[in-house]
Each structure stands twice: as structure tokens, then as C-alpha cells.
UniProtKB/TrEMBL annotation:
Organism: Pelagibacter ubique
Residue ranges crossing the lipid bilayer per the database entry: 12-32
Claim: Transmembrane helix is one of the keywords in the record: yes
Entry keyword set: Membrane, Transmembrane, Transmembrane helix
Highest taxon above the source species: Bacteria
Protein name from the UniProt record: Serine protease
Amino acid sequence: MMIPDKKTKRKNILTALAILGFMVFLFFFTLYNTGVFDRSI
């Protein structure tokens, strides 16, 4: 097993946050395009 250092851990957390943020963005973008929101945000 690799010994996790702080740089690797921080990088993994940032990557996870980026993926989550991107998924949330796509989710709202799809909702907006399908006309769920009547008013523009």
C-alpha cells in the first residue's frame, strides 16, 4: 500500500469536488434546457 501524503490527499479531494460540481452543473443545465424552470436564473 502507498503511504498517502498530504499533496495526494488534497489532489484527490479537489478532483472529487470538481467532478461533483460538474455533475451538479450538468444536472441544472439539463433541467434548464428541458424547460423545468419557467424563469431564467
